[in-house]
Amino acid sequence: xxxxxxxxxxxxxxxxxxxxxxxxxxxxxxxxxxxxxxxxxxxxxxxxxxxxxxxxxxxxxxxxxxxxxxxxxxxxxxxxxxxxxxxxxxxxxxxxxxxxxxxxxxxxxxxxxxxxxxxxxxxxxxxxxxxxxxxxxxxxxxxxxxxxxxxxxxxxxxxxxxxxxxxxxxxxxxxxxxxxxxxxxxxxxxxxxxxxxxxxxxxxxxxxxxxxxxxxxxxxxxxxxxxxxxxxxxxxxxxxxxxxxxxxxxxxxxxxxxxxxxxxxxxxxxxxxxxxxxxxxxxxxxxxxxxxxxxxxxxxxxxxxxxxxxxxxxxxxxxxxxxxxxxxxxxxxxxxxxxxxxxxxxxxxxxxxxxxxxxxxxxxxxxxxxxxxxxxxxxxxxxxxxxxxxxxxxxxxxxxxxxxxxxxxxxxxxxxxxxxxxxxxxxxxxxxxxxxxxxxxxxxxxxxxxxxxxxxxxxxxxxxxxxxxxxxxxxxx
Amino acid sequence: xxxxxxxxxxxxxxxxxxxxxxxxxxxxxxxxxxxxxxxxxxxxxxxxxxxxxxxxxxxxxxxxxxxxxxxxxxxxxxxxxxxxxxxxxxxxxxxxxxxxxxxxxxxxxxxxxxxxxxxxxxxxxxxxxxxxxxxxxxxxxxxxxxxxxxxxxxxxxxxxxxxxxxxxxxxxxxxxxxxxxxxxxxxxxxxxxxxxxxxxxxxxxxxxxxxxxxxxxxxxxxxxxxxxxxxxxxxxxxxxxxxxxxxxxxxxxxxxxxxxxxxxxxxxxxxxxxxxxxxxxxxxxxxxxxxxxxxxxxxxxxxxxxxxxxxxxxxxxxxxxxxxxxxxxxxxxxxxxxxxxxxxxxxxxxxxxxxxxxxxxxxxxxxxxxxxxxxxxxxxxxxxxxxxxxxxxxxxxxxxxxxxxxxxxxxxxxxxxxxxxxxxxxxxxxxxxxxxxxxxxxxxxxxxxxxxxxxxxxxxxxxxxxxxxxxxxxxxxxxxxxxxxxxxxxxxxxxxxxxxxxxxxxxxxxxxxxxxxxxxxxxxxxxxxxxxxxxxxxxxxxxxxxxxxxxxxxxxxxxxxxxxxxxxxxxxxxxxxxxxxxxxxxxxxxxxxxxxxxxxxxxxxxxxxxxxxxxxxxxxxxxxxxxxxxxxxxxxxxxxxxxxxxxxxxxxxxxxxxxxxxxxxxxxxxxxxxxxxxxxxxxxxxxxxxxxxxxxxxxxxxxxxxxxxxxxxxxxxxxxxxxxxxxxxxxxxxxxxxxxxxxxxxxxxxxxxxxxxxxxxxxxxxxxxxxxxxxxxxxxxxxxxxxxxxxxxxxxxxxxxxxxxxxxxxxxxxxxxxxxxxxxxxxxxxxxxxxxxxxxxxxxxxxxxxxxxxxxxxxxxxxxxxxxxxxxxxxxxxxxxxxxxxxxxxxxxxxxxxxxxxxxxxxxxxxxxxxxxxxxxxxxxxxxxxxxxxxxxxxxxxxxxxxxxxxxxxxxxxxxxxxxxxxxxxxxxxxxxxxxxxxxxxxxxxxxxxxxxxxxxxxxxxxxxxxxxxxxxxxxxxxxxxxxxxxxxxxxxxxxxxxxxxxx
Lengths: 477, 1048
Prior knowledge:
The complex is a heterodimer. Chain A is an all-alpha fold. Chain A is built from 17 helices and no strands. In chain A, helix 6 crosses helix 7 (195-204) and helix 10 packs across helix 11. Chain A is globular, with a radius of gyration of 24 Å. By secondary structure, chain B is of the alpha/beta class. Chain B has a 7-stranded mixed β-sheet with strand order 5-4-16-15-14-6-7, with helices on both faces. In chain B, strands 11-10-9-12 form a 4-stranded parallel β-sheet. In chain B, strands 21-25-24-30 form a 4-stranded mixed β-sheet, with no helix packed on it. In chain B, helix 12 (304-319) crosses helix 13, helix 15 packs across helix 17 and helix 19 packs across helix 20. The N and C termini of chain B lie far apart (77 Å).
């Protein structure tokens, strides 16, 4: 009989890594010269970022009229993209905070990248409330600051103002959490670096020495931040959903929006994490840290949240019918069979039908299926927001004002540009910081007898540990 | 109580007479700190640095930000009448060919900026039209001719007036035939001037035609009654109205006057006795008048003669008159006309049959019908003739012959544009070229002026003196409200100058003014006895703007010598597709095509802007689809061929367009002169001429299938129906058609937007509305928020009432709103993208039978909700509620998130998508609106055009939301007036622009907390028919509508 697998938990990092090996594996991507793939990909991302900058300057210079929005559909791709990106930004915090509190230790393989993704997604999202303003240069009006304009204050009734607070809070806490986690790792990089590089990392690692006191404070801070972030995961998208739920427009004015939005956000966030992780682990050769088990676990979250979202869609339709309220009924009828029917069916297929494939263990553990479906889910979630925003506005109360919306090249450029910006930032991140949390991974390394190589070492020490897990054990995990 | 003698105490300190309080109370303003002498200031090093830093920074900022400099030069000597900030109103008249309106011109700081109706006129009675409202903008048209000159290569080579006069006088003295081509002239003094000119040059003849002809009506009246004139039609006295293609509310004869009379019989006088007239309209296309009709009788244009004969025969049968052999008519129309005939006969003497065709025999038969019905001298009054249409195109045709024969030596074109307006414009152009000297008085370089040798540009109407006699005994004065902007000269003066008139005092500063005044002293004063002196009479007439003489009674009888000849009426055509041509309320036959306000005013029926569109019928597949004829969609391009001439036309689907017919408006495709160039197609060459009269239909039109689609099809309304019914092909049952189309029952007709019912079903309508109101109230009571009735229940609370039965959809209010509130013009492309900026729009919904629907117009503007959805979603409090119930916009605070516009259930908020007004921070991004030629500056960038802006209303910059403010500037002015005069606010102190523009009094505005105010009274009168749109969503609108009632 080979080495028995510990019944407490099975191994999370494969390859029978030693502590040094982990430092090597995870620090090297920041130290070696960029690969040709990285350079090509980075150039493309930079080009899209440049397109983004151009389209945004164009919008500011010429006016919002360069977009396809109109007197009836005043929000379209702008807010669709905003909600989409904010949704994507939910996985990071969920993985870091909630899974930390729930002691899901498998999270360590992906939490760093997911948190980074969160921050970059929120950066992308945060652009839209700004650039969709008619007068961006007066954006500071949305902050409640003492001013010389008499007793002029912001409107605390407005969900848009709540958005300002929700998103800025979420962004600050996410950045803090992410950076706190980074500090010991940056110190590791620092210790390996020389010259100017060493000096810079010295600054960024805040003089981390690895003393017990440091570790103790670090642990406490991580826990506190996790505690702070946990409600944020729920609150941010709840507040974003209030942008719609507190309006009087049928199709927006629904009480189901907060839970529905949160589930959708986690759903899309995990899908985006999958997209990124599948690429990253391959490109940076981290298959042993971000294992099939991670992908499997995250796919389970996707199928769960996808199903919640599906239930929410059906509930909406039911409530619209049950309400007996003609405007609501028509709004949902129109959503399904109206002018944008293709967007609704696209959404239904991508968000509700496609994740059901993940009930199959084989698909769940297939890299290609995962990659493909994660993209499908993200397309579906984009459709969801478009359906909610544009379809609803296009057919509201007064039929005389009904209209149709088509994006212009400016909006398409801005959207594809934010995707470029997102990858631009993420790729820089992979070059300057370890994409997997070194310190945290080391903490979950299995350092039992299998690592022991001294006298009376057991036979098979240092041999690769089997990762085969029985169904029974799987359930325990 | 020891302090009882102390009337007021402001705090406990006061009550207790604390010493410190008493000390401070001595000072009215608490300036202790400031009152102290400041300590001597000893500058420290830090202070020095602070000052240095600030001054350097400030200097840098100031030096780098270039602020555009605009000069404002004060008067050296202030003119008496001009008080900055105070408007002056001058009575004047809007006269342009066949259009007349008595107006007041509002001027601010010497600039005319707004047209109001003159309530003293008994013709228009304070009503206006869209055309009249847009008058001020044409004054500031950048393409106006700026000096006289010789025209070479399409350009005006400048000449001095003296040089021009010499040249023209030289030509005039050569002798030969002189022809003056005009539209109808209704000015007695201008006619006198013309008389002098003719006396001087006896070879002169005035040739008059109208842009849209009424010549057959004149000819028929001459034949039947011996009076070559158009009588007064008393729509207010008519219980039953039958109109054969006469668009009497929009364009026919005297629409403002007709609209008022008509609407007075459409408003529900009392619920028990509605006393509503019944209106039949026989037509092929959906005209503005037809859209208001209770019953439309659809025919092909060529069946008009048959329809008239059929009605005649029905009437003749009952009145014992001889029948005539009517041409074939479709069965549906026959049956409907039978019903019309019985209605007419039942109300003999109180009915009115009018006819808009240009066929003499048809008009004669209609006259006979009126005779048989006893309408002559009752609803049709020849005592007061309408002078607005005196033209006769046959005269024009004769002139073309003369010119071709080389018999005309000199031609003067005055106000007319035959090179565009005539169906045979090509012939005219060829013949006109044979005239030796061609002179134009035009204010712009239009198609005809381009063909002239000389142009002697006349003043704009608002710079002119003049008079008018639109109807017998109704005189009206025109006075200038601004000094001439350019080196122009009034046409009358040019004529008198060239005629060497002895009656003209050339030394006078304003010779024509003296001429006019002396004419009034000589001719007009004698018509009255109220004023003894000519000066008093003149002053009062000028003040009032109108002078009316009671008419002498004239009764007419149908001449027994006139024989009815059914063979002379239009015979039904055999063509597969017939086409009708019609005049729109905004563009006319192109006379108004260069006015951006009118171009951007959506056509009341098609809701399209900037051009003319081919109206095609809508077909019902019997199940659940409404399709355009031949499967065409709105915005598709088709090739239309009439009389062998082809045009690419853009299609718009119109419910109520008769099957097998299409229609297109006149006035598109202008080639020269202004912003109308390049919009639409010129259909004048398609108009047939029969018996010398221009016909406004063609019996055969070839319409190709779809050949393309217009890129920026500009239509402000995409959905058009509100409860159309149709027959289900299988079951034969009447079903709700537009909900079939939307595939959803209850989607439209159950919405609380329009309530409509038959006049006989008012009781059930009232019950339905009461139930709805109860339901809505129940829903609205489920709120956590306290009722604010006490808050709004005291003081002023502004509200509006709109009577949908009186609203005819003419659009005067919309243009008035644009004019009053500096609403920008955005151009066709932007309207096509649904970026129009109109604060007030008139929603048009079809209801009733799908194949032959009725129409309801609903003016829709900000509803000023007391529980406004827009207000609570603005993150920066840019929109909020006043204590007087007004939803206010603070433009400076708006950052343009547009959440308010999304959350507005009425979709009345407008966002400045681009820099439409050139009020933006960055001047580089101003939208070129008209894209006519390179180098065009944006519409509002020109200082000349900017003169039209109302200085009381902020010009909004890019990126902010705007919307109807209930004319807050007028409210403020009214409140101040009342305050200054130390009296309570009265209804007349505040009247909104839309309200004053309305010719039918459909809009009432005022303080609803005053039970005596007009708005309270109007709502009270309509108690059970008044409703708030979307009441059940608890927005609590300040605007109420009345249910639409029809009398079919």
